[in-house]
Amino acid sequence: MKQVLVDLRPWNKDLAIAALESGADGVVADSAGPVRELGRIPVIAPDGDLIPEQDIREIIISNTEDQAVAMEAAKICRIIVHTPDWTIIPLENLVACGDNVIAVVTNLKEAEQALTVLEKGVAGVLVKTDDPDIVRSISRMVQSGTCGQQLNRLTITAVQPAGMGERVCVDTCSLMVDGEGMLVGNTSSGFFLVHAETLVNPYVAPRPFRVNAGGVHAYLQVPGGKTAYLADLKAGDRVMVIHGNGSCREATVGRVKIERRPLFLVEAESEGQKLSVILQNAETIRLVKPDYSAVSVTSLNPGDVILGKVESGGRHFGMAIDETIIEK
């Protein structure tokens, strides 16, 4: 997930409040003291959580020599890059070198450009403005889905009962909407987009904060390109909420419910690759179709097409690795 930092130099209480209330990832200040009187947030300051020039460098790029210095620095530490004349080329060159670049921006348009340059974008932005509304709009834009997921069409090949077992409901501190859910799979090479409980049905009230995600053993995609076992999730963890259109955002886990229920094994394939997931056998458990509508797992038939994600397999403590691992 991209980071949003806010520049509080000189001290601006209204900006600090906007940073805290909008969920910014941190602030840059002359002193951490005034910030900590308002709330808890990472502070880059001489007396803060990160120390300038020690943990993070600020570099002004005005010419090719400055760019060369920045490119070398980005190889070893995170850098905050100021481009006074706002040229995109230095950012493109820096992004091509790695993931350590924070770009200084002054408005929403500059933030959008920096976060999408070379389609990959910088790691984050430092918002330098006197307007708290700009801080809020940039934070909202980042949280609503600049990360983007390339989803795949999966063709159902089999749906069959899988006995009894423990399944996990992931209850978040965010409200999801129709078309949103979480990517869950039996293996780290294939995930199904499991729909949130947003829909009305005759049996139970909607729970738009919940995804009934699957068996305790399953992988769930979480921020940073990582995965977590459903059984390991706990209150305060961060998870990814993904829409069928590929947009995504982070959400905080508020509660995890593990209960014994009847299960279904759902199998599918995409371009010759086989995928599977184990879900609760209930009409309220749904997957997402290519038109972003929801389909109940109890209504699935071979040949139906739903959305998911195919990846190269192999994980070690949730991180993708390049080694021989067979999962089936």
UniProtKB/TrEMBL annotation:
Its UniProt entry gives the catalysed reaction(s) as: 2-amino-2,3,7-trideoxy-D-lyxo-hept-6-ulosonate + NAD(+) + H2O = 3-dehydroquinate + NH4(+) + NADH + H(+)
What keywords is this UniProt entry annotated with?
Amino-acid biosynthesis, Aromatic amino acid biosynthesis, NAD, Oxidoreductase
* Repeat among keywords: no
| GO MF term set | 3-dehydroquinate synthase activity; dehydroquinate synthase activity; NAD binding
Alphabetical GO biological process terms: amino acid biosynthetic process; aromatic amino acid family biosynthetic process
Q: Which residues form the 3-dehydroquinate synthase C-terminal domain?
A: 154-328
A Pfam family the protein falls into: DHQS
Q: Does the keyword Cytoplasm apply?
A: no
Q: Which principal EC class is assigned to this enzyme? A: oxidoreductase
Q: What EC number(s) has UniProt assigned to this enzyme?
A: 1.4.1.24
Domain named 3-dehydroquinate synthase N-terminal: residues? 1-141
Xref: InterPro entries: DHQS, DHQS/DOIS_N, DHQS_C
HAMAP family cross-referenced by the UniProt entry: Arch_DHQ_synthase (MF_01244)
Tell me the function of this protein: Catalyzes the oxidative deamination and cyclization of 2-amino-3,7-dideoxy-D-threo-hept-6-ulosonic acid (ADH) to yield 3-dehydroquinate (DHQ), which is fed into the canonical shikimic pathway of aromatic amino acid biosynthesis.
Similarity comment text for this entry: Belongs to the archaeal-type DHQ synthase family.
What name appears for this protein in its UniProt entry?
Answer: 3-dehydroquinate synthase
Q: Which organism is it from?
A: Methanospirillum purgamenti
